[in-house]
Amino acid sequence: MESHASDALNLLPGSVATAFGFGLSLTFTVVHGVRDEESGVTSALQNTSRHIGVGVLSAMAVMTTAATLPNAFERQRRMTRAP
């Protein structure tokens, strides 16, 4: 099995830039038009919902991977078996 470490390193800069851009723009969008004394609560709600969303999506990705990975290993084993 070959390593995919270089693929991850190629994707890392774009992922970091995207996360930074989304976080910055969403914070400004959420806080826009809110009174100064309520801006902290508004920003906290936005950050909390973002973290919950990331947690739920990560859990879904792990469950999907765990459900499909054994089948992928079995297919690979059958394909590499000599006839």
Detailed description of the structure:
- The protein is an all-alpha fold and 83 residues long.
- It has helices spanning 5-31, 39-80.
- Helix 1 (5-31) packs antiparallel against helix 2.
- The longest helix has 42 residues, at 39-80.
- It is elongated.
What would the average pLDDT be, to the nearest integer?
76
Q: What level of helicity do the residues show? A: over 70%
Largest sheet entry:
none
Q: Spans of 5+ residues with little confidence (pLDDT < 50)?
A: none
What is the number of E strands?
0
- List the quaternary state of the chains: single chain
Which series of helices and strands comes N to C? HH
Distance from N terminus to C terminus (CA atoms, Å) equals 20 Å
- Percent of residues in β-strands: under 5%
Number of domains: 1
Rg, nearest Å: 21 Å
